[in-house]
Amino acid sequence: MSIGATRLKHWIGSRNRLGAISWMREWTGMTADDFRKLALALPETEERGHMDHPDFRVHGKIFATLGYPNDEWGMVKIAPDDQLALVAAEPDVFVPAKGKWGEHGATCVRLELAGVPAVREAMVLARDLIGATTSLAARSRATSSPRKRRQA
What we know:
- By secondary structure, the protein is α+β, with helices and mostly antiparallel strands.
- It has one domain (28-138): Alpha-Beta Complex (Aspartate Aminotransferase, domain 1), CATH 3.90.1150.30.
- Helices cover 34% and strands 30% of the residues.
- The chain contains 4 helices and 8 strands.
- The protein has helices spanning 32-40, 80-89, 99-103, 116-143; strands at residues 9-15, 21-27, 45-50, 53-58, 61-66, 73-77, 94-96, 106-110.
- Helix 1 (32-40) packs parallel to helix 4 (116-143).
- The longest helix is centred in the C-terminal third of the chain and has 28 residues, at 116-143.
- The chain is globular, with a radius of gyration of 18 Å.
């Protein structure tokens, strides 16, 4: 069975990466398993556990979690500007996490109201943000000169 195969369909407008609104028919009522499948479908993603709930990582860095703040929610780490756009487009689905974590882009996803296309886009943004950050750090380490050892 595909993701959302038994869910209610409706028409929804959403913004793509370029900010254009596109109308699509979307399935609503995502489950934790649907969220997991979307995350694990992204390249180089692995599932681990952290603070008693599953998380999804690329290059060891968390970009999404399930079960925060409770079992009815997921979370994606996206850029603050992307968070503002998602929250404005779908305020019932996307909610900034509390405190500094939320100010830095941690965005809670209300699974029961979420549609697959919107969450997939949020996950791609989160994965790309973490992947880009990790890649830059790895490139920096690879191009920096090796440390000289002290002579004893």
